[in-house]
Amino acid sequence: MNKQQPIQDEVNSNVEEENNLSDNLQQEHTEEELQNEAEAANVEDVTGEIEKLRLEAEEHQQRLLRVQADYDNFRRRTVKEKEELAKYASSVLITQLIPVIDNFERALTTGDESTNGSAYAKGVEMIFRQFMDVMSAEGLTPMNSVGEAFNPEYHQAIMQVESDEYEEGIVVEEIQKGYLLKDKVLRPAMVKVSQ
């Protein structure tokens, strides 16, 4: 019996070792399965997230294309409106000038028949005032330069003259009238300036 005891202990020890190995293998196998399942779940989550982001990117792309198309349409419409506005911008002024043209035509037809020059001159003067009223309503104002200090923004000096009446650098004579449109110089006045 003594001999059998060490053998029995050894067998028991081997069985116990085998059981421990088997448990360890099962535990490792279970951990591996859990890890594989977790990785598979992560892959599914990542794949789902990628799909969601892809759909969002497509939606944003479609929005961008729509906004770009709207902007292009707006730009084309604005250019067309500007061209049309520029084309017909003077229509209001021309409408106001048509009665002046009518009066000039009347004056020209009566000028041949009329022997009274002063009446003709008075009629032309009235037409000139009517014309200047229309222009003034549009913001046109003539410059009064004589007696003013020479200013290269408003005056174009064509000559310098000796003058006892004016100091140096003063406009003594206006050769051609200058005009302002609101606050902008449309045409500078041609002037003679004192020396």
UniProtKB/TrEMBL annotation:
<comment type="subunit">
    <text>Homodimer.</text>
</comment>
<keyword id="KW-0963">Cytoplasm</keyword>
<protein>
    <recommendedName>
        <fullName>Protein GrpE</fullName>
    </recommendedName>
</protein>
<comment type="function">
    <text>Participates actively in the response to hyperosmotic and heat shock by preventing the aggregation of stress-denatured proteins, in association with DnaK and GrpE. It is the nucleotide exchange factor for DnaK and may function as a thermosensor. Unfolded proteins bind initially to DnaJ; upon interaction with the DnaJ-bound protein, DnaK hydrolyzes its bound ATP, resulting in the formation of a stable complex. GrpE releases ADP from DnaK; ATP binding to DnaK triggers the release of the substrate protein, thus completing the reaction cycle.</text>
</comment>
<keyword id="KW-0143">Chaperone</keyword>
<dbReference type="InterPro" id="IPR000740">
    <property type="entry name" value="GrpE"/>
</dbReference>
<dbReference type="InterPro" id="IPR009012">
    <property type="entry name" value="GrpE_head"/>
</dbReference>
<dbReference type="InterPro" id="IPR013805">
    <property type="entry name" value="GrpE_CC"/>
</dbReference>
<comment type="similarity">
    <text>Belongs to the GrpE family.</text>
</comment>
<dbReference type="Pfam" id="PF01025">
    <property type="entry name" value="GrpE"/>
</dbReference>
<feature type="region of interest" description="Disordered">
    <location>
        <begin position="1"/>
        <end position="45"/>
    </location>
</feature>
<keyword id="KW-0346">Stress response</keyword>
